[in-house]
Amino acid sequence: MRPTDDAGALAATSLLQLIWLASPALPIGGFSYSEGFEAVVGYGFVATEIEASDWLTQQLHVTLARGDLAVVARAIPAWRRDDLASAGELNAWILQTRETSELRLQTAQMGESLLQWLRNQNTATPSRLAACAQMRATYPVTFALAASATQAGVRDCLLAFAFGWAENMVQATVKSVPLGQNAGQRILARLADEIPSAVAHALRLADGERQAFAPMLAILSSRHETQYSRLFRS
C-alpha cells in the first residue's frame, strides 16, 4: 500500500483551485476588456513590444498593486471571518475609484459573472453568496470570496489574481498593437518576474494607503468610449 500524503493532497487542491480562478477560460468575460490599452495604441503611446511591456509593467505597479491587489488582500480574510461590513467597504472603495464608465462596467460585469459561476460550485456558503449579491460585488471582492474558500495563503491568492490579469492584458496587447505570440510570451515573462514584488507591495499597504491615481489611464479610458474602431469593451 502506498503512503498517503494528506497535506500534499490539500496543497494540490488549493493550487488547482487558484489556477482555475486565474484561467482566461473562466467564463467571466475578461478577454473582452483591454483596460484602456486599445486606446493607448490608438493614440500612439505604444507601437512596439518594448513599449507595450513597459506600459503593462507600469500599470501592474501603479494601479493593480496599489488598488485591486490591496483590496483582495483585505477582502480574503474579511470573507473568511464573515466580516461582511469590511467586505462591503472594500467593494464601495472599488466602485468609487473607477474613474470611467467603462472601467466601472468591467469590474461590475466580471464580478457578477464570477458570482454566477460560484453559484454552480460548492465552495461558497449561501449566506456569503447572498451577501455578495446584495452588495453587487465587484470583481476583486468576488474573486476574494472565491479564493477565501481555498486553503491557500493570501499571498498565493494575490499571485493568482495578478497572473490572471497579466494573461488577459497580454492577449489584449497582442491583438491591439498587434504583436506575435512569441512577443506576447516575452511580455508575460517580464510581468511574471514583476508580479511577486507587486504582490509584496500590496500586502504592505494599510487601508488608508490604497491608491487609485492614474490620470493618463483615466483619460485614455474616457477617449476609448468614443474611439472610432474598437475590439474591446474597455
Q: What keywords describe this structure?
A:
Urease accessory protein UreF, 234 residues, 0% strand, mainly alpha, 11 helices
Topology:
Elements: H1 6-22, H2 37-42, H3 49-64, H4 68-80, H5 84-96, H6 101-119, H7 126-134, H8 139-148, H9 154-176, H10 181-204, H11 215-224
Structural summary, described in words:
The protein is an all-alpha fold. The chain has a single domain, classed as Urease accessory protein UreF (Orthogonal Bundle), CATH 1.10.4190.10. It has 11 helices and no strands. The chain starts with 5 loop residues before the first helix and ends in a 10-residue tail after the last helix.
Secondary-structure-based class equals mainly alpha
Overall mean pLDDT stands at 93
Instruction: Please count the beta strands (DSSP E, at least 2 residues each).
Output: 0
Which percent bin holds the helix content?
Answer: 55-70%
**The first-level CATH class name:** Mainly Alpha
